[in-house]
Amino acid sequence: MEEMLHPEFVEIGRSGRRWTRTEVIEALAGEPRRAAPEVDEWEFVDLAEHLVLVTYRLHTGTRQSRHSSVWDTSAAAARLRFHQGTVIPTEFQ
């Protein structure tokens, strides 16, 4: 996880909470492994040289959410710079 997250990584969680890189790493270290969710509606948009916006929809059980991530591709391996997830209310699913 430390290698995948950019040093300046920030996340806005589905709850609206702002998470730092350190907080995310610590929180995930204490979580049990989960089954991989179903993911679709992938889109990739170049924002600038070495910055890519990735958006997708995630299905976990009966809940759906939309996610957006900004990836820094300037190094040998892409690193996640920003992430946000938003729950889709059932009336919009």
Explained architecture:
The protein is mainly beta and 93 residues long. 10% of the residues lie in helices and 55% in strands. Strands 2-1-6-5-4-3 form a 6-stranded mixed sheet. The protein is globular and about 40 Å long.
How would you sum up this structure in a few lines?
This protein has 93 residues and is mainly beta.
Q: What's the helix-strand series?
A: EEHEEEE
* Overall radius of gyration: 14 Å
Judging from the principal axes of the Cα atoms, what is the shape?
globular
What is the averaged pLDDT score? 92
The amount of helix comes to under 10%
Outline the biggest β-sheet: 6 strands, mixed
Low-confidence stretches: none
| Number of DSSP helical runs | 1
Structural class: mainly beta
Distance between the termini: 31 Å
Strand share of the residues?
over 45%
Q: How are the strands of the biggest sheet laid out side by side?
A: 2-1-6-5-4-3
Number of strand elements: 6
